[in-house]
Amino acid sequence: MTLNPTDAPPIQVRGLSKTYKVGFWFNKTVRALQGLDLEVGAGQIYGLLGPNGAGKSTTIKILMNLVRPSGGTALLYGQPVDQAATRRMVGFLPENPSPYEYLTGREFVTLAGQLCGMGGHELDLRVKEVLGAVDMSHAEKLQIRRYSKGMVQRVALAQALVSKPKMLILDEPTSGLDPVGRRQMRDLILAERDRGTTVLFCSHIIPDVEALCDRLAVLVGGRRVREGSVQQLLSAQVPSVEVVVEGLKLDQVKNLGVSLESTQALDGRVMLQVADADSQRLLGQVLAAGGRVNSLQAAKFSLEQLFMDALKDSGRASSVGGEINT
């Protein structure tokens, strides 16, 4: 029996693992994914957040049947990812799109539509529509070899949109875009969500994830270390306060006998962060030591702080940036 696409979640990943052979003799291994579980609901914008080498791109490549997993299962609308009919419901923007550079932007997007079974006047109208949506109408007759990186990113998004897919899978969609382009990209993604499109995208640009996602998963070392809505993840953190102290040096503040989350020496002042439960004891210690409290306010816990805490908990904070891009 053929499963109706509405009967199953758009994406289901269970126990997914992937091991790559690397080195000159392929005698070393890199575990890009280790028992990953994910489920993306219909109409959601679901983000994958993580450092380089976290497994974000590998997950997307497995979903697009570009890489075969070493273990576990990955399903699109309840069907294996190697079924072409299922993948036709997906628009895909790879991390580093490389369209044939001697085609014009319009020819490239038209070709993408033809490969999806579109044609005739309907295709012409749709190509014009998506090129306008990504602000590339002015360059549609230029060969892609004359495009900047940001222009290539835009026309690659247009090809992902041309077939009106039920799902968009976007790998670093704002890479190479200027601030205006990033804002336009975010607006396009939100507009697609409003039309009922399911969106999975991965990024290491935290503001984009925070602005867009209904739910997100933080990946570190091929494992999911956090998952939930942005609000759930942030509200689950222990509340803390930010205090600015005058009249005491940094070493004196550190020796007050109160556990501090962070400290920073400023010009004649010390800014520190402490758990809300310890704030009253800290104030008493500061005053007893002859210091003054310049300001005290609730600390806004950010997604960036959650991300860094996830790295720290996983023992990876010191190694971010020196990893294989997976």
Automatic annotation (TrEMBL):
GO molecular function: ATP binding; ATP hydrolysis activity
Highest taxon above the source species: Bacteria
Keywords, comma-separated and alphabetical: ATP-binding, Nucleotide-binding, Transport
Signal sequence interval, chain numbering: none
Record domain ABC transporter: where: 11-246
Family named by the database record: Belongs to the ABC transporter superfamily.
PANTHER family registered for this protein in UniProt: ABC TRANSPORTER, ATP-BINDING PROTEIN
Protein name: ABC transporter ATP-binding protein
Lineage, top ranks: Bacteria, Pseudomonadati, Myxococcota, Myxococcia, Myxococcales
